[in-house]
């Protein structure tokens, strides 16, 4: 039974059909499960065999301090449900060719130097971090697994055999979120930034730049996501609807940080 379930998880993550699954707010996993899953995924991402190279946190202390401050500004918005439950630990991956960032369950955040160099201001970085942190805070990974496999089968895996967490975590690497979860992460990015001094629609900046550069530069991870144009609109509409007043972008400060990157 166990093997079959794990196999199903693996093939489902590779299949587009999974992303159309109905959105329910059920989650058979506990907060502790999210934390354990995240720690397992983080261990795999950070193992030598993953091939990721990380920026040294001492040599690049300025960059880490800067990015961590942006994260703290988001955490201090008071809008996250699991601010004190999850790790919210950032590691920067030295890879200029990847325009991406991701966050595991339980809040282990990974940011590629490629996206740091692509973005042009601090509010844009805050928007991207807010989006990734929302995936963890809204517990999208474990909600998605609950939706895909149903409560019964997962109760068997999770409750019956906690060791399976380790195996499930393998399937989480490379997980594609559903369109609804992407939309929700964008929405929460604005919500998190709204009480801060940032332009709360900062996340739109990433998509505006992608769009202005034409189709050829669209990173692979966006291909299954909602249309960039719709996402730009949604960021801006959400900002207006929530009455967010912040307008700061911190462009020169951001460029100063980028200059310290290798
Ligand atoms: Zn996302």
Care to count the β-strands?
3
What's the SSE pattern? Answer: HHHEEEHHHHHHHH
How many domains is the backbone divided into?
1
Strand content: under 5%
Largest sheet: 3 strands, mixed
Summarize the structure.
It is built from eleven helices and three strands, in the order αααβββαααααααα. It is mainly alpha-helical.
Written account of the structure:
With 262 residues, this protein is mainly alpha-helical. It has one domain (26-259). The chain has helices spanning 2-13, 31-45, 61-75, 113-118, 122-137, 140-159, 164-172, 179-193, 203-212, 228-241, 251-259, and strands at residues 89-93, 101-103, 108-112. The chain has a three-stranded mixed β-sheet, with helices on both faces. Helix 5 (122-137) packs across helix 8 (179-193) and helix 8 (179-193) runs parallel beside helix 10 (228-241). The chain is globular and about 50 Å long. It starts with a helix and ends with a helix. Residues 1-23 have low confidence and may be disordered. Residues 131, 135, 177, 182, 185 line the site of zinc ion (ZN).
Write the layout of secondary structure elements.
Layout: H1 2-13, H2 31-45, H3 61-75, E1 89-93, E2 101-103, E3 108-112, H4 113-118, H5 122-137, H6 140-159, H7 164-172, H8 179-193, H9 203-212, H10 228-241, H11 251-259
Helix pairs in contact: 1-6, 1-7, 2-7, 3-5, 5-8, 5-9, 8-10, 9-10
The structure holds zinc ion.
């Amino acid at each position: 039974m166990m093997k079959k379930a794990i196999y199903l998880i693996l093939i489902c993550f590779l299949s587009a059909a999974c992303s159309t699954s109905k959105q329910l707010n059920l989650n058979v996993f506990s907060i502790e499960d999210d934390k354990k899953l995240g720690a397992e995924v983080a261990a795999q991402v950070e193992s030598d065999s993953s091939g990721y190279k990380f920026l040294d946190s001492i040599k690049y202390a300025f960059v880490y301090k800067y990015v961590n401050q942006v994260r703290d500004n988001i955490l201090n918005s008071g809008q996250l449900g699991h601010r004190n439950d999850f790790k919210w630990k950032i590691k920067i991956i030295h890879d200029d060719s990847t325009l991406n960032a991701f966050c595991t369950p339980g809040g282990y955040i990974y940011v590629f130097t490629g996206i740091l160099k692509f973005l042009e201001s601090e509010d844009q970085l805050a928007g991207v971090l807010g989006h990734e942190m929302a995936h963890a805070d809204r517990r999208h990974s474990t909600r998605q697994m609950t939706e895909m496999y149903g409560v019964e089968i997962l109760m068997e895996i999770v409750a019956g055999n906690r060791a399976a967490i380790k195996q499930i975590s393998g399937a989480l690497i490379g997980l594609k979120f559903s369109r609804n979860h992407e939309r929700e992460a964008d929405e929460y990015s604005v919500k998190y930034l709204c009480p801060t001094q940032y332009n709360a629609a900062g996340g739109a900046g990433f998509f505006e730049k992608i769009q202005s550069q034409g189709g050829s530069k669209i990173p692979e991870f966006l291909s299954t996501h909602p249309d960039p144009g719709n996402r730009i609109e949604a960021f801006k509409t959400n900002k207006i609807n929530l009455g967010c007043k912040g307008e700061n972008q911190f462009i020169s400060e951001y460029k100063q940080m980028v200059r310290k990157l290798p």
